[in-house]
Specification:
There is one protein chain. This protein has one domain: Beta Barrel (Porin). It has four helices and 16 strands. The chain has a 16-stranded antiparallel β-barrel with strand order 1-2-3-4-5-6-7-8-9-10-11-12-13-14-15-16. It starts with a helix and ends with a strand.
């Protein structure tokens, strides 16, 4: 086992011991009602066809290198003030082997709170209100499937998407025609995802990407207790590259990512229908120098998903997910002509079917199958040659397939 993996496993073991200790303490002592402690742990298995890897060396007999352990808690010392935090240990192949980190940790103060209104502010590390699932993607039990639709919720940049450090104002207004929710924040993005760092430098240039002042927000409408849900969310995430001295240097360039997402959901007694559409996901990078010329492209993605609870403990999900990195080059042909790299690295069309079994309220098993055309959401760290390297020329392995399969299993426990 390599050093990063050994360190990650050590961190996960420590967090597991902490989770079990807190669980035992919570059962042994009656905590005040203002204190809540919960947790979860999960172990996954991923198998992929060809040489396409996801969350580890999944093409070589499958990968067990996908696990999550989390402990979260909250304390409300006064009716208007609450403190919340979640500590997570996560291992997801080369895309996430940093061990233990704080997913979120913030103070929440409500200025106005009555039967019809709730207005307040949060300060600290806060989950980003993007789409329907981003704020709850950290807990396996609150996701609609093992893997979220990758066209909207990238797992290879999970930490960047999940939360950011800053301040957020929020409001809720209940009316006779429905409930309205609003969130807006000024934040500094988290940029520690290995794949995000690698995406700019291709491993050829030393240095780090750091977040700069950005914003994120969402407006959401619900009717009939959540039977109908409509939302629009977006952000403007910015950062700067800090080069380290080397024989060939990139300059201190800047990057910008501007997503816009429209979301709609209908919930019936036994089934739900959800769709989210990102008509624009603009990525821009400037000032890095001649080895990474200025660039800008706008991607587009959507998914449509149905879930059906056909028995009290069983649920099935069916989804189609479509990702395009450049809406003006939807099939990647221009990219292939310009770089020599396969067109299929610029898109992904994914059909997913999955099954959930809640064995008990605390234990859940899941299985799902993905049939994918395109490799647009595979990570370059696990699939060398996915992106051009300006210093060390490389080519994509011939046996990485445009049409490929992914099979996943997940066992989860919560307390």
């Amino acid at each position: 086992m390599d050093t990063p993996s050994r360190q990650a496993c050590t961190g996960l073991s420590v967090l597991l011991a902490l989770a079990l200790t807190l669980s035992a303490a919570a059962q042994a002592f009656e905590l005040p009602e203002s204190v809540q402690i919960h947790g979860f742990l999960s172990q996954g298995y991923i198998s992929t066809s060809g040489s396409n890897n996801f969350f580890g060396h999944s093409s070589d007999g499958g990968s067990w290198n996908y696990r999550e352990i989390g402990v979260n808690g909250s304390w409300r010392p006064t009716p208007k003030l609450q403190f919340s935090m979640q500590v997570v240990g996560r291992d997801a192949g080369e895309t996430d082997n940093d061990g233990v980190r704080i997913d979120y940790g913030f103070a929440d103060y409500s200025f106005i709170s009555d039967a019809d209104r709730l207005w307040g502010a949060r300060v600290g590390r806060i989950t980003n209100p993007l789409g329907f699932y981003n704020e709850t993607r950290d807990v396996p039990f609150t996701r609609p499937s093992i893997l979220l639709p990758q066209g909207i919720y990238f797992d290879r940049n999970r930490n960047l998407s999940l939360s950011a450090d800053g301040v957020q104002v929020y409001g809720e207004q209940r009316t006779s025609i429905g409930d309205f929710y609003f969130q807006a924040g000024a934040v500094q993005p988290r940029t520690e995802d290995p794949e995000f760092q690698h995406g700019f430098t291709n491993g050829a240039f030393p240095g780090e990407l750091d977040g700069r002042l950005s914003w994120v927000g969402r407006a959401l409408y619900e009717r009939d207790g959540g039977r109908i849900r409509l939302a629009v969310s977006g952000g403007d995430f910015r950062g700067k590259y800090e080069p380290k001295p080397w024989k060939i240097d990139l300059q201190d360039g800047r990057f910008r990512f501007v997503p816009l997402i429209f979301s709609a959901q209908y919930n019936a007694e036994k089934w739900s229908l959800t769709s989210e559409f990102a008509p624009r996901r603009t990525a821009e990078f400037r000032g890095f120098g001649p080895f990474l010329p200025d660039g800008k492209f706008t991607g587009q993605s959507f998914y449509i998903q149905g879930t059906y609870r056909f028995a009290p403990k069983w649920e099935v999900v069916l989804r189609y997910d479509d990702l395009r990195w450049d809406k003006n080059d939807r099939n990647g042909k221009d990219w292939e002509a310009a770089t020599g790299f396969p067109a299929h690295t610029r898109f992904a069309k994914d059909w997913t079917v999955g099954l959930r079994w809640d064995i008990t309220p605390r234990i859940m098993l899941r299985a799902e199958y993905h049939r994918v055309k395109g490799t647009g959401w595979l990570a370059a760290l696990e699939n060398p040659g996915m992106r051009p390297n300006p210093i060390v020329p490389s080519t994509l392995e011939d046996d990485i397939d445009e049409d490929w399969n992914l099979f996943a299993l997940l066992a989860s426990f919560r307390f």
